[in-house]
């Protein structure tokens, strides 16, 4: 589904990602761990094609096609969707209008989706303007439901969300990953795939992860069982990254 090969990225001339190699298999959920400033968000932003993330070398393959130099629009059309940590305020753009443009699909039931995410009263408001942290997450999820991408890039979906809402957000993500898919192939357990950044691992109470990666200082340190990685990080922090790299790479 997604293959990142030797990807090196700079922001303003500073190297942020260094020869990153990472794979997300079709229908699988991959988790990206790493300390603050490791480059996790930069990786997701680069994958989506946002400007300012200068690809110095390497390749991004999506469904077997080289998308390294495609625009954000082209990537979205091919099935990449993102929930960023800090989406911009879209003053003058109502949420209902944005969802309509994104869905571009008459079969998407906006009323049902907005009701499910408790976003009905936000549909006539400007996107993200004055939204709380949790409301922004729900709005982003509504937009992702409308887009129905093949690969969900989720940057800390639980951050800023209270303990009750995390259940709603977690189960919605799980449903989206398991739902109707443009990418489904019968023999896979589900069609949609995800690359999720999480610090706390709370989202993993609702979404079953398949593979984990740890990124430190822009370098992939190890790949392994995500639940074991999380346990190790909680017990010993990220110092173990170095040992892990020595052991596995
Ligand atoms: N627009 C930018 N201009 C300059 N530096 C940037 C920019 N965006 C990110 N960086 C830098 O790139 C590095 C990686 O940032 P990134 O946000 O990807 O880290 P992260 O692993 O997602 O961290 P966190 O867990 O705190 O969210 C940081 O040192 C950050 O300051």
UniProtKB/TrEMBL annotation:
<keyword id="KW-0547">Nucleotide-binding</keyword>
<dbReference type="Pfam" id="PF00005">
    <property type="entry name" value="ABC_tran"/>
</dbReference>
<dbReference type="InterPro" id="IPR027417">
    <property type="entry name" value="P-loop_NTPase"/>
</dbReference>
<protein>
    <submittedName>
        <fullName>ABC transporter ATP-binding protein</fullName>
    </submittedName>
</protein>
<dbReference type="InterPro" id="IPR010230">
    <property type="entry name" value="FeS-cluster_ATPase_SufC"/>
</dbReference>
<dbReference type="InterPro" id="IPR003439">
    <property type="entry name" value="ABC_transporter-like_ATP-bd"/>
</dbReference>
<dbReference type="GO" id="GO:0005524">
    <property type="term" value="F:ATP binding"/>
</dbReference>
<dbReference type="InterPro" id="IPR003593">
    <property type="entry name" value="AAA+_ATPase"/>
</dbReference>
<dbReference type="GO" id="GO:0016887">
    <property type="term" value="F:ATP hydrolysis activity"/>
</dbReference>
<feature type="domain" description="ABC transporter">
    <location>
        <begin position="2"/>
        <end position="242"/>
    </location>
</feature>
<keyword id="KW-0067">ATP-binding</keyword>
């Amino acid at each position: 589904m997604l293959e990142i090969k030797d990807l090196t990225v700079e922001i303003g001339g500073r190297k942020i990602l260094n020869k990153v190699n990472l794979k997300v298999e079709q229908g699988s959920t991959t988790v990206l761990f790493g300390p603050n400033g490791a480059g996790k968000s930069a990786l997701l932003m680069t994958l989506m094609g946002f400007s300012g993330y200068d690809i110095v070398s390497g390749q991004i393959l999506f469904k077997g096609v080289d998308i390294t130099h495609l625009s954000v629009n082209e990537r979205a059309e091919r099935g990449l969707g993102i929930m960023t940590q800090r989406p911009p305020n879209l003053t003058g753009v109502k949420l209902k209008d944005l969802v309509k443009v994104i869905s571009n699909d008459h079969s998407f039931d906006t009323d049902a989706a907005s009701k499910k995410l408790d976003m009905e009263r936000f549909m006539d408001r400007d996107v993200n303007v004055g939204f709380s942290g949790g409301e922004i997450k729900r709005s982003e999820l509504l937009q992702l439901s409308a887009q129905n991408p093949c690969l969900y890039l989720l940057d800390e979906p639980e951050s800023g969300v209270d303990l009750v809402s995390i259940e709603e957000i977690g189960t919605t993500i799980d449903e989206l990953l398991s739902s109707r898919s443009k990418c489904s192939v019968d023999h896979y357990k589900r069609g949609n795939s995800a690359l999720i950044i999480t610090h706390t691992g709370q989202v993993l109470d609702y979404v079953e992860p398949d593979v984990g990666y740890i990124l430190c200082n822009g370098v992939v340190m190890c790949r392994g069982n995500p639940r074991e990685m999380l346990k190790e990080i909680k017990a010993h922090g990220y110092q173990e990254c170095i040992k892990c790299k020595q052991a596995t790479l």
